[in-house]
Amino acid sequence: MQDADDLLDPQSLVIHGDLDWDNPEANDTALAPAIWPASTYAARSSAEFAAMANQPRHPRYYARYGNPTQERCERLLARLEGMEAALLMSSGMGAMSAALLAHARAGDHVVAQTSHYMGTAKLLTDLLPGMGVEVTLVDQRDPQAFSKAARKNTRMIVAETPSNPTLALTDLAAVAGFASSRGITTLADNTFASPINQHPRDFGIDLVLHSATKYLGGHSDLIAGVVCGSRAAVEKIWERSIVLGSNVSPFNAFLLLRGLRTLPMRVARQNENALALARFLEAHPAIARVHYPELASHPQHELAKRQMKHGGGVLSIELKNGDGDEQGFRAAQRFVAALKLARNAVSLGGVETLVVHAASMWEASLTPEQMRRAGIAPSLVRIAVGLENAADLQADMRRALSFSGREE
Ligand SMILES: *Cc1c(COP(=O)(O)O)cnc(C)c1O
Questions:
Q1: Average pLDDT per run of 10 along the chain, which is 408 residues long?
Q2: In 3D, which of 101, 96, 41 has the Cα closest to residue 68?
C-alpha cells in the first residue's frame, strides 16, 4: 500500500489517511476517533491472551504498549512522511530518547550536530556519554563533516534541519548517501520543516522524528513526539520506549489527529506569513539581519531550494544596534515586550505567533562564549509565525521596532 499512499497529496492524506486501507472491515465507522482510556484489555480466551501478549505493538493489550486511538493517528503520521510505520510517543524528547537508546549502546559512536534542540543537545553531551556512548558534534553546514567524523563503531548520525535558532541547514542527501554506504542509521529531526515542507525519506534518511507538540498538533494544547521509519526500525524503538515509559496518552493522540486534519492548510499560511514577514523585516532600517531559508540572503539558500518546498514558519532576526553588547540585549527585550499580537513564549508551530529572545532564554545554560559559537547574537529574536493576518503582524512588529531603540 506504500506506493498507493505516495500518490495522495498531503491534503487528502490528512483527511483520510488514518484509515486502514488494506483491511477496510477493521475501520471504525465513527468519523472522529474514539478516545480509548483503558489501561488494560481483557482476552476472551487463553489463546487470544497469548496472541495479545506476544504480538509486538498490539493496540489492545496494555496501554503502555499502545492503544487504538494512537494506532489510528500513527497510520496517518507514517503516510505523511512516506514511511512504512510510525511510533507516537509522550513528547519529542521521549521520542528522541527512545530512538537514540534503541541504537546506541556502550562502546558505540554517534555523530550529531553542534546545533540541536537544547534537550537533544543535553541527551547527546550528558546522558549518552555517561552511558559509555561516544558522541562527536560537527558543524552541520559542512556536508563532509559527518563522514569525516565517522569511525568504525559509528552506529548513528543525528541531523536536525533547519536548526534552532539561526535556521542552519543540513544537506540530507549528502549525509544519507555516505551513511547508507557504511550501514549507519540516520535520523533527521524534521520538526521545524514539518512533513509539508520537507521529506527526509526522499533523500535517503532512515528515521524521521518530530516534536508533534509543534506543527503537527498545531494548537499549543498537547505534548507528543513521533518517529517514522521502516516497520522493523520502528519496532526496535518501540521495544525501548515501553521500558522508558515514553508512551503517549490516548487523549493526546486524539488531539493530535484532530490537529493534523488542517496541517497542510496551516503550514501553507505559516509559510506565506513567514516569508512576507522575513522580507518586510529584511528591508526595515532597525534590523541588521534576518535568518530565513527562503531568503536569497540565507547562506544555504541553494540547499534550501533543493531540499525544502518552502522556508517554514520560523525565522530569526538581529537588531541593528545589537552586535556583541548590552545595548542589543536590551533593545531585543524592549522589542519583545512592546509586541501586542505576538506573544512572548517558547515553542512554535501553533496558530499564534510566538517570539523569544534567545539570549534571555539561555542566559543560565550557556556561557557568552558558547552563545557566540552557536551564532546567538545578544539581539537575536526568534519568531515562530502563526496564522494571523500578515499585515497585522507586520504592523505589530513595525510599532514594536520603533520602541526597541529607545532607552527607558
Ligand atoms: C520542541 C522540540 C523538540 C522537543 O520536543 P518536545 O515535544 O518538547 O519534547 C525536539 N526537537 C525540536 C526541533 C523541537 O523544536
A1: 66 96 94 96 97 96 97 98 98 98 97 96 96 98 97 98 96 97 97 98 98 98 98 98 98 98 98 98 96 98 98 96 75 96 97 96 84 88 98 97 73
A2: 41
CA of 331 from ligand 1 middle (Å) equals 28
Pairwise CA distance, residues 378 & 369, whole Å: 11
Q: How far, in Å, from the CA of 191 to the mean position of ligand 1?
A: 7
Nearest in space to 396 (alpha carbons), one of 347, 355, 345, 349: 355
Dist CA 67 CA 351 (whole Å): 28
Domains detected in the chain: 4-260 (3.40.640.10), 263-404 (3.90.1150.10)
* Residue 308 to residues 173, 198, 211, Cα–Cα distance (Å): 12, 5, 18
For β-strands 154-160 and 134-138, DSSP reports them as: unpaired
CA 63 to chain centre: 25
Q: Which residue has the cell 558558547?
A: 370
CA distance 327 to 357: 14
Mutation test residue for ligand 1: of 90, 91, 93, 361, the one with most atoms within 8 Å of CB = 93
CA-based torsion, 198, 201, 205, 208: positive or negative? positive
